[in-house]
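User: Modeling request: complex.
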Amino acid sequence: MTKKQLLEAIEIEAKKYFVDASGCHDWTHVERVRALAGRIGKAEDADLHVLAAAALLHDVSRGEEMRKGGGFCHAEHGAEEARNILVRLGCEPDFIDRVTHCIRTHRKRGKNIPESLEAKILFDADKLDSLGAIGVGRAFLFAGMAGSKTLYTGNEKELAKHDKDYSYTNEDSVFLEYEKHLKHLKDRLLTKTGKTIARERSDFMKDFFTQFWKEVEGKC
Amino acid sequence: MTKKQLLEAIEIEAKKYFVDASGCHDWTHVERVRALAGRIGKAEDADLHVLAAAALLHDVSRGEEMRKGGGFCHAEHGAEEARNILVRLGCEPDFIDRVTHCIRTHRKRGKNIPESLEAKILFDADKLDSLGAIGVGRAFLFAGMAGSKTLYTGNEKELAKHDKDYSYTNEDSVFLEYEKHLKHLKDRLLTKTGKTIARERSDFMKDFFTQFWKEVEGKC
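Assistant: Request completed. Predicted assembly structure:
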């Protein structure tokens, strides 16, 4: 099997996990992360084969996490799921270890810290999908899916100062998510290329909300 | 009762209809339409008192339309509902006629065509709330609320060529709504000031989707 054929086989396996997926983490998210990881990987001189396999497989256990809820980590379980797939496809142990390291650490939680260059790039590409125009679209779509009642409350800047979690309350909104999390995301990226793209997408998002609030007041 | 007091009383009455409203036509929509109508009204030298009253009351029957569905027109019923409110508040017949004309014709459907300057401005302000950054946010939020499965399908430009209605199907997406309707909305506005703001907001939306598709491909 050539490298291209292997990636095609991995893609077929990975896609099976996304039949019922919707919203912010559907198959289009995987495609975007793969594209972005490839771009960053080229600039950072990473192993593009490991990176493409890891990007394709990084969210295979997200559906299970959504169903099972708290305590289940889709990164840890996804790494094991991916290992099974790659063993079945006859991959080398070293390749499997390098791919599953990326998947296990792509959330950068607890002891699962991205150490390889490819793992750092997957982390960056995944985070970048929450920024820019895609980030805006995903945030509003998700808010609607989660039953958000309104576009904004007008209290966001005040509420963002506190540590309280307003998820699924009437105080929650996309702009609160932006003020609390999305506008700080650029500071968490790990690679030089990732940081550069994050700054550009973060600026786009900032300009979007500047226009948004001017329009709220009828000023433009 | 001064003009300011009357508008405050109208606002209290109008708000009662929005207790259970959510999403794209909640009370914040009314506030934005009022702000924008005021801005256009000043530039076009319109009667700002008629315009503010009409903006506050223009969607009072939208909740009933949502509950009752097809055949019920919130503009026609809203005009009658508004008439009852304004009579109760002791308004002059001429003022009531001018306000209810705006409300009845704010959708510009069938025989209900905006004739007065204030009616044309209300139509423009209402349409403008579907454009720009607010338009983007409303469209994605509404898609999520309506159960949309994905951010985009990639088939939008092709599907937009046909007249078929894809609402609530797996082919529907915000970008399809943009390609079919939102990008043409600027050509439907009625006042000079409304047209100028529409062009600006339409350009903003076009730039948003240009960035959106570049990001999909990982190009920025």
